[in-house]
Amino acid sequence: MTAPLVLVDTNVVVSGLLTSDRDAPTARILDRMLTGEIRGLLSVELLAEYREVLLRPGIRSRHGLDEREVDTILTAIAENAVICEPIEPPSAPPDRGDLHLWSMLAARPGAILVTGDQALVDCAPGWTTVLTARAFIESP
User: Fold this and answer.
1) How far apart, in whole angstroms, are the C-alpha atoms of residue 86 and residue 101?
2) Distance between CA atoms of residues 92 and 102, nearest Å
3) What is the pLDDT of residue 1?
4) pLDDT at site 65
5) Does the pTM of the predicted model rise above 0.90?
6) Which range of residues forms the domain containing residue 28?
7) What 3-state DSSP class applies to 129?
8) CATH code for the domain of 118
9) Which of 82, 84, 105, 113 is the most buried (most CB within 10 A)?
10) Could you count the other beta carbons within 10 Å of the beta carbon of residue 80?
11) 44-98 residue pLDDT tens
12) How does 52-68 read in b/e, with b if 16+ C-beta sit within 10 Å?
């Protein structure tokens, strides 16, 4: 059986990079994205969002990476991901700012969204799966 596609929200990527606990669920997910153990679902827009957030001054001061190092990480993520074109989702997300994530999930039925946004978990529509990082790591 093929592993499911996993759409990793920006907050999980950022948390995975910032945590000093290498066993934290977000760190484990990021590591698996980098090695290709997770079949990531990615769009050009989401990759750009990862980059923009990781290069924000406040976040950059916490991870200590320069632009080239961030781009190296993002290149590895992209090399191990499946790129998709978002489509109109069958329902709206709880926050319009998350429409792109819903649109990507609609484009790839069966994909799993992993997020740190509890509102997305709590309002997961019946047509997709939305999990916290911990729930994803602990799932069989």
Assistant:
1) 8
2) 7
3) 53
4) 97
5) yes
6) 5-138
7) strand
8) 3.40.50.1010
9) 105
10) 17
11) 999 999 999 999 999 999 999 999 999 999 999 999 999 999 999 988 888 888 9
12) eebeeeebeeeeebeee
| 3-state SS, residue 139 | coil
pLDDT score of 26: 98
For 11, residues 6+ apart whose C-beta sits below 8 A from its C-beta are 115, 116, 117
CA–CA dist 33, 64 (Å, integer)? 20
Number of domains in the chain: 1
Burial of 96 (C-beta count, 10 Å sphere; 0-12/13-18/19+): exposed
The answer, yes or no, to whether residue 125 has pLDDT greater than 90, is no
Alpha helix ranges (H) inside the chain:
10-18, 25-35, 44-54, 57-63, 67-79, 99-107, 118-122, 133-138
Q: Which two tokens stand for residue 58?
A: 């406040």
Stated as kind and residue range, the H or E segment containing 113 is strand 112-114
Dig out the tokens for 80 from the structure.
């191990």
Strand order through the sheet with 5-8: 81-83, 39-42, 5-8, 112-114, 129-131
